[in-house]
Amino acid sequence: MSRLQQAIEQLAFARQYTSGLLDKTDAADWFRQPAGGVSHIGWQAGHLAYAEYRLALDRIRGPKPEDARLFPESYVDLFRRQSMPIAEAGRYPSAAELRALLDRIHAQVLRELPSLAEAEWDQPAHREHPLARTKLASVLWAGHHEMLHAGQIGLLRRQLGYAPVW
What we know:
mainly alpha
């Protein structure tokens, strides 16, 4: 198995794990911020969609005009790095829209990444990232990043009264 295929499998595994958590969380709870908390599940989901687009598409092949259909520009300020989650559901796309966003971007990533030529794997990423300097490292970080946020989703679920998901 190639290094790229391993990275893609890690990304797919992370998404499967995240999806399992989201599937077992009522959409009505996605924007509830636990007392003393700093985030909510809706922000986590939107941030994961944004991050997967940036790490596994934009940094690999650069932006394309049709990407606006994948991740609308109006969502960038809501979900980019260092954006602040606001416990106000009306400021965000609905849980269903966020799930569709996650699915749409992930499907595009899985369509595009397998065609990345081996000669490109160790080339610098299209956009610089402090933890992922090469294209392959960017894909690997996308999977690791998703697992990090899946842990946050798991913690938020527990704080909202949900049982752990295994």
